[in-house]
Amino acid sequence: MQKSCTQCGSSFEITQSDLEFYDKISPVFNEKKHSIPAPTYCPDCRMKRRFTFRNFFNLYKRKSDLSGKDIISMYDKDSPFPVFDQHEWWGDKWNGIDYGKDIDFNQSFFEQLKELHNTVPHMGIMNTQSENTDYSNLCFQSRNCYLVFGSVLNEDCCYGHIVWQCRNCFDCLYTYRSEFCYECIDCVQCYNTLFSQSSENCNDSYFLVNCHGCRNCFGCVGMNNNEYCIFNEQISKEEYKSRVDYLLSHLKTIKSKLEELRSNEIVKNFHGYSCENVQGDYLYFSRNIVRSYDLKNCEDCKYCATCDSFKDCYDCNYSPPHAEVSYESITISGFHYLFCHRCLGNNSDILYCDDCHGCRNCFGCFGLKQKEYCILNKQYSKEQYEDLSSRLIDHMINTKEWGEFASITPFAYNETIAHQYFPLSQEQALKEGYRWKDKEDEIPQVEKIIPADRLPVSINDIPDDILNWAIKCEATQRPFRIVKQELEFYRKMKLPIPRFHPDERHKRRIALRNPRKLWQRKCDKCGEGMETTYAPERPERVFCEKCYLNEVY
């Protein structure tokens, strides 16, 4: 069945297996199944709509509306709802049930949901079980981290996004179980590896691309289990050290040679391994995956991204491990979520909920902990809950809200991750019904602001006073500061001070990853058709998985 997206007008397909999935997840109240309808938005517009709920990178200074103390928050001071320090939010000085409201069947459900959201206290930042990580957001079980976002089990890391189980890693993106890494993208189990991408189990190396099991290698592409290589050439241990010292002072030479090697590289049609019947990119230990990206240990999932250990899920994003039978949700863990946001702690059977933890059988609730049979934060008996939920869905069908993700984000479009993956101009965002925030950089209160090109090249020539300066980004002219933890890392790793603002560095790392888009093209070896995130004009030779494995191994 072909449908036309009501948001962008593009055509998209609803398959028989999609309809079976929607039927499978449809909730049952009073022994009546309330069928989830086929979506009205295309997959990309659905993802964009969910992404407008995720502000990773914009943090603000404001007061807690409970204690009045100064806090760091993902919500600016002009937010319409109360904002608490995260420890206060988890405390016992308030209860979400106290904000409960009756259902008004004369008003649309999403309007009532928005009223509830604008009344219940919000958590300023969400750094669960973390220590000394106040200038980060959505970090779990981490300590001593600074400006790291969407991370788990990290220590002493700075300037990262989707960095898990790492220590002393700076300026990394989608990096896992690594230590002392810098400017790494999609790297796993690496140590003392710098400026590298899509590499695994590599140590003491620089500028690697698609390398595995390499040590003491520099500027290598597509190498496996090698040592003392420069630009894919085997050399002696003695020669390696002297040439590396020379090359590190000639970055243009490195970039030019890497581009030459990459243009002749043989690559697989997707990044990943140990997969069966998958479609997408950056997929690991997964099976039966359709149009999904950055998944690990997932099964029977479609239109998902950045999830771990998900099963039978469609349209889910940015979630820690373990969720099943869920649809159109972001940052969840548990069973049977429908249209939910940031609900963790093994919830189950919840619909249209936000920031609920350890709850069951809840509908349209916000900020509840360990509750059951609640609607709009009001407590009911099981029988009342079943009856009202059934009536509420019938009401939502009449208002054409049932089956849609509620577009009630508290953020402006350009504050969110949606703007990164689906960039819009201010005019376009407003036309699509999103807000826009005019942001001005806070001028640092420092001794002086120095242009990046005036910084000494060698870290040995950088004085301690740099902690009292701001640096003007070479690309954007935005000023940024160096913190003590960061300076110590650069000195230990013998790295120069960065010339670009942290936001610009992140933007450049994202640009180095393959886009979340699939192209039809033929395997450059056997000629069979395949789907890949390598655009047809890319210089690499792209092989299907079978041909790639035969060629490389």
Total DSSP helices = 12
Shape: globular
Helix content: 10-25%
The percent range for strand residues is 25-35%
Total strands: 36
Rg, Cα atoms, Å: 25 Å
Mean pLDDT rating: 95
* Distance from first to last alpha carbon: 42 Å
- Structural class assignment: alpha/beta
Low-pLDDT segments:
none
Q: Characterize the main sheet.
A: 11 strands, mixed
Topology (SSEs and partners):
Elements: E1 2-4, E2 11-13, H1 16-25, E3 28-29, E4 32-33, H2 43-51, E5 60-63, E6 70-73, E7 83-84, H3 86-90, H4 109-117, E8 122-123, E9 137-140, E10 146-152, E11 158-164, E12 167-176, E13 179-185, E14 191-197, E15 203-206, E16 215-218, E17 227-230, E18 233-234, H5 237-247, H6 251-263, E19 266-268, E20 272-273, E21 276-284, E22 287-296, E23 299-302, E24 305-308, E25 310-319, E26 323-338, E27 341-351, E28 360-363, E29 372-375, E30 378-379, H7 382-398, H8 418-421, H9 426-431, E31 448-451, E32 469-472, E33 479-480, H10 484-493, H11 502-512, E34 519-522, E35 529-532, E36 541-543, H12 545-552
Parallel strand pairs: 7-8, 9-10, 10-11, 11-12, 12-13, 13-14, 14-15, 15-16, 16-17, 19-36, 20-21, 21-22, 22-23, 22-24, 23-25, 24-25, 25-26, 26-27, 27-28, 28-29, 31-32
Antiparallel strand pairs: 1-2, 3-4, 5-6, 17-18, 29-30, 32-33, 34-35
